[in-house]
Structure formats: C-alpha cells, structure tokens
Amino acid sequence: MQLLELQNLKKYFATQKAVDDISFSINEGSIFGMLGPNGAGKTTLLRMITGIFYPDSGEVMFNGKKFDPQSDFRNIGYMPEERGLYKKMKIGEQAVYLARLKGLSHAEATQKVKEWFIKFEMQSWWNKKVEDLSKGMSQKLQFVTTVLHEPKLIILDEPFSGLDPVNANLIKDEIFHLAKNGSTIIFSTHRMEQVEEICDHIVLINKGKKILDGSVNNIKQEFKENIYQLGAKTLPENLINYIFEVVKHDNHQVLLRLQNDATPNDVLKHFLSQGVEIQSFNEVLPSLNDIFIKLVEDTTKARQFQNIQ
C-alpha cells in the first residue's frame, strides 16, 4: 500500500525551477533513497512533503488523502541536514519538549526519551547542553527526537554526517528495525554506498527533474553491461576471443564483456576447453555511483545541447 504519492509537483523560485513536474510514490515499510547532486531540488522536495513549502502546482497525497500539515505533521518525523536543536537547552528537557510538540503527554514523552537514551547509551547526557556535544553526539540526539513519537513517515537528510563507524552502524541498524516495524523511511544523501546498502527503492533527481525511479535491484539490472568476472588458478597468456572483450585482467582474474550474443555458458565452455581451473565466475552489476554519474552527466549534456539549439 502506498503511504506517500507525489503528483506533478512544481516549485519555482523567481526564474529557477527548483522542482519541475516530479511524480513518484512510496510504499509503506519501504526504505526509499532520494538522490541527486547539490542543487538538484531534493531539499525543496522534502520541504513540500513536510508542508514547510507549498507547491506552486501538483499534490502531495499522504495515507490515501491530500496532505494536511495541520493534522498529518504528527505522523512525520523530519531530520533536516541543517540541525534544529536549541544549543543552550538541556538535552533531556529538549527531547521531552520536542516529543510533546508531536502530541505525546509529558509522562509519555519522558518515558520514550528515557528508553531511547538507554538504547543509545545517552543516559549521562540528560543535563548536558547541545553546545557541549560533538557533532556525532548531537546527530544521535537529533535522530532520537525525529523517531521517538513513532511516526509513519521518517525523513532523514544526511543522517550519518559526523558519525563514527560504530554509531553509524547503530543508526543504520535502527533504520532497518523501524522499517521492519512498519515505518516508511525517506533517506536523502549523496553517499551512494550507503544507499546501495540500505535502500530498496530510489529516485534520482537532477536540476529539478526526476531522471530515474525504481527498485535498486531492477535499476542495476537495467544498466548492466554484460560484464562478468572469472577467477582461475592460472589464466592463459592469450585471452583474445570473439565471444568476449577483455576489460581488465591479471594472472588469476579477468573481467570480460560478452560479445556477439555470447552467453555465460559459452565463456565457461571456452575456458574449460583450454584446461583452465575456474575458481569463481559471477556477473558484475554496475554500482549506483556509476549509474548516478552516467545519468547526471547525460542529462547535463542533453540540456546544454538543447540550450545551444
């Protein structure tokens, strides 16, 4: 079931098309990656989803009806890239205060904050001020205040910024746990390896337009280039053959691009017929980073060409 649907959203600032006719939907329980270079329109899009900005045209549908910031904001947790914590306020009081803004009673908020502080080993922070925290520690606090009211939709904009590997894994595990329990998560970042590891669906935005939308597995299959990696105890010196092109090789491993409608079985038969002892053989799918760079470069070149015309 769809939790969020964006229908032909547009947002202009003066002559700049920050968001230019973007549509996509997000299913309940999905971890959805929103990708794009700086200035692509991601932040503007997130602010329209949360009701901070109103679209110039188009609709945001939330839980089957038109999004209403007055009633739906309690079902959303938003962790912006620009952190919004009060530097002079004590951490425990601040977390309780923010939870109460989302509709929790003082007793409920205090209990939830204590549970999360124990989970993240933050109990000793209660009377500290935000200005006394490191960037990574304040990042953990911001995450807690984003999710503790158990929102249906959680929006995380660069959530791992400033975190060491241990705390990054802590947040990552909690993202998986929240999704497993039914939360829908939008994960906005420029770190492709994190998206590849965490997200099941992505949308790629460039210069205000959507240029890619789909499941991570389907996208990688769509952009694969018939490249296979073969590992062997020893490879023959002469690797030239009409059924494949050698992309890269050494004495024990070769990267091949299939040619002339050849199949993986044809490659295996070829090497076995030469007495090669094969140790591994697998298809190499492109990384999201490779796909991202290719599509962003292609759309930029296309727009430059259109401007020339």
List the helices and strands in order.
EEEHEEHEHHHEHEHEEHEEEHEH
Helix content: 25-40%
Please give the count of helices: 10
Rg estimate, integer Å = 24 Å
Determine and state the CATH class of the largest domain.
Alpha Beta
Which blocks of ≥5 consecutive residues have pLDDT under 50? 301-309
Portion of residues in beta strands equals 25-35%
What's the total number of strands? 14
Provide structural commentary.
This protein has 309 residues and is an alpha/beta fold. The chain has two domains: 2-216, P-loop containing nucleotide triphosphate hydrolases (Rossmann fold), CATH 3.40.50.300; 225-283, Alpha-Beta Plaits (2-Layer Sandwich). The protein contains ten helices and 14 strands. The chain has helices at residues 42-49, 69-72, 91-101, 106-119, 135-147, 165-180, 192-198, 216-222, 264-273, 288-308, and strands spanning 2-13, 16-27, 31-35, 57-62, 65-66, 76-79, 153-157, 184-188, 201-206, 209-215, 227-232, 244-249, 253-258, 278-283. The strands form three sheets. The chain has a six-stranded mixed beta sheet with strand order 6-7-8-3-9-10, sandwiched between helices. A four-stranded antiparallel beta sheet has the order 2-1-4-5, with helices on one face. α6 (165-180) links the parallel β7 (153-157) and β8 (184-188). α3 (91-101) crosses α4. The longest helix has 21 residues, at 288-308.
